[in-house]
Fold this protein.
Amino acid sequence: MKPRLSPQTLEVIDALLAAPREWQYGYDISRNTGLKSGTLYPILMRLADRKLLETRWEMADPGKPPRHMYRFTPEGLLFARANARAGSAGSRRVALSMEHG
């Protein structure tokens, strides 16, 4: 099932596409997109539930909490490349119109 591509979801996809095969921390994705955790983490969970992202925990130094990391699955990378905004208003309108169609 195709996830709903809100503008915020497209921001997350674009941020992950900056280094599509690398593990990225949720905090870094938040910093790069400007999205608050209450918006970002539900998007990441939906993408992971749909098998578009894989996740793992990285154990931190003693006394620091483990960090959740994300990267595209092979299917997720194909999906992301097909749905990325490509930085133009025209492609954003196409992607957004596909959400409602």
About this structure: Residues 7-95 form a domain with the Arc Repressor Mutant, subunit A fold (CATH 1.10.10.10). The helical segments are 7-17, 26-33, 37-49, 74-83, 89-99. The longest helix spans residues 37-49.
